[in-house]
Design a protein that fits this description.
Length: 351
């Protein structure tokens, strides 16, 4: 079943007052050819991002977050990976129908990506300033001088101190947090409409993570860019996102506006994710989710989460729960979504 991510909003606002969608991913499925055959790693994923909104995509390692974002940007490793169904509409244009040249054009101008590891996104033998200014030089035909001035402006924007001096530094002269700021400056240099940040703070310590998150949030608001924030840590994105999509085993298992999902999750996996990271407020004990996330090559039958779920019943072992509305603008793929929302989920004893 295809879900319509706009259903909830339609119920709240009349059609012509609804903010337009910047990005609409509908029924996206991605397969990889591996030595063990064809593996579906993203399965019927739908979500939407309105103009100027921040969407968090959450899930454990291997849940398909990065593959989804690579597919959105047309960056899947070829020929192993391919989109087998679904569409990715950016301001109404289906990106899956564009050729490589058109995609590259869009990625330079309108879409930008911030990767997990700033180390690999930066060229070690080029100054930070040259790298930030390069796209502007190439695409806007700026002189060296103008590109350098642009780089300094961008470095100020992302609050790299002493920008005039540091513009000529090499990446290794920057701390991890400053490198990630430089990568964000690169991504924003051409004023994109959409930025996808894939675990932009994972390699950083907690304080620096918070600083980078506030920076992203602030830039998103001041520049009106749409932001997709990918993370495995609900705590990290809680203060920055408007909406959240939770993935498990390549599927969306819950989605909705951040606060209501955070306050009353409607899927036991979302509850587990929340218990496994430190809370912003309160001091509830950390409880890891027992077991390990499944391999997409070998998904459990029925609900893929059932082997780890404290509420699993017979039905969960055989029937895949469809994503269904569980409140305004909210969806959950749990047979017991209502009960979870109402009563919560018991904490599972360790072991
Ligand atoms: N090039 C590839 N070939 C085959 N399988 C792949 C390839 N890239 C990713 N996968 C598989 O696709 C699944 C989803 O991977 P993905 O990188 O999207 O996970 P993720 O949610 O981003 O995890 P993490 O939090 O570790 O970054 C994983 O099982 C992974 O092994
Ligand atoms: Mg990833």
């Amino acid at each position: 079943m295809r879900s319509d991510p706009s259903t909830g909003a339609a119920a709240v606002l009349p059609h012509d007052e609804r903010p337009a969608h910047l990005l609409e991913v509908d029924g996206l499925s991605v397969e990889f050819q591996t030595r063990d055959g064809t593996v579906r790693v993203v399965d019927d994923v739908s979500f939407a991002l309105r103009e100027g909104e921040t969407l968090a995509v959450l899930g454990e390692s291997g849940s398909g977050k990065s593959v989804t974002s690579l597919a959105v940007l047309g960056l899947l490793p070829r020929p192993a990976g391919r989109i087998v169904s679904g569409s990715v509409r950016f301001r109404g244009t289906d990106l899956t129908a564009l050729d490589e040249r058109q995609l590259r054009e869009l990625r330079g101008e309108r879409l930008a990506m911030v990767f997990q590891d700033p180390q690999s996104a930066l060229n070690p033998v080029m100054t930070v300033g040259d790298q930030i200014g390069e796209a502007a030089r190439r695409r806007r035909r700026l002189s060296r001088r103008a590109a350098r001035a642009k780089a300094i402006d961008m470095m100020r924007l992302v609050r790299i101190p002493d920008a005039e001096r540091r513009v000529d530094d090499y990446p290794h002269q920057f701390s991890g947090g400053m490198r990630q700021r430089a990568v964000i400056a690169m991504a924003l240099a051409l004023d994109p409409d959409l930025v996808i940040a894939d675990e932009p703070t994972t390699a950083l310590d907690v304080t620096v993570q918070q600083q980078i998150m506030s920076l992203l949030r602030e830039l998103q608001q001041s520049r009106g860019v749409g932001l997709v924030l990918i993370s495995h840590d609900l705590g990290v994105v809680a203060g920055a996102a408007d909406r959240v999509v939770v993935m498990y085993g390549g599927r969306v298992i819950e989605s909705g506006p951040l606060r209501p999902v955070y306050d009353r999750p409607a899927h036991p996996y979302t509850v587990g994710l929340m218990r496994s990271v430190p809370e912003a407020e309160g001091d509830a004990p950390l409880v890891p989710i027992p077991g390990a996330p499944p391999s997409p090559a070998d998904l459990p039958t029925g609900c893929a989460f059932h082997p780890r779920c404290p509420l699993a019943a017979d039905r969960c072992r055989t029937e895949i729960p469809p994503l269904q509305p569980v409140g305004p603008d909210r969806l959950s793929a749990c047979h017991y979504a209502e009960e979870v929302q109402r009563d919560g989920v018991p904490v599972q004893p360790a072991g």
